[in-house]
Amino acid sequence: MTKHEIMVEYVQDKIKELCDSMLTFNFADGKATSVSFLTNYAGKIVKKYVRAADKEYGFTILLTWYYSEETDDINMQAMNLGQKFMEWIEEQNAIKNYPDFEGCQVKKIENLQNMPNLATVDWENKVAQYQIPCRVLYFEKEKQK
Known about the structure:
- The longest helix has 21 residues, at about 75-95.
- This protein is about 25% helix and about 45% strand.
- It is built from two helices and six strands.
- Strands 1, 2, 3, 4, 5 and 6 form a six-stranded mixed β-sheet that branches.
- The chain is elongated, with a radius of gyration of 17 Å.
- It has about 140 residues and is an alpha+beta fold.
């Protein structure tokens, strides 16, 4: 499996548990209650060693949720949903429950911010998108030629 497939598999059950939504890959349809897994970068070298490197896999979870201009709690619900996913990421890191990057040693998984970003608002359709940027830091040896 590729790192993309491994990561989607790693987060999809939690997404289903939190919002009963199917996870899409690198596609956001803009419908309320949809959740997308967006790739940011893969194999980005953080630190180079002789015949090995610390690398990053960056991704963003994009929550598309209902949006309200009123004083109700709809916007708060979306923010809390995103925060719950972020707490789950922190919990996985604390217990060292990492995605299985075959042939690599995963060092950590982490959120890159302390709360979800309100990324866009579609006023006409009353939906908003919240971004949760994350990364996996891992050690990988060079492949023998």
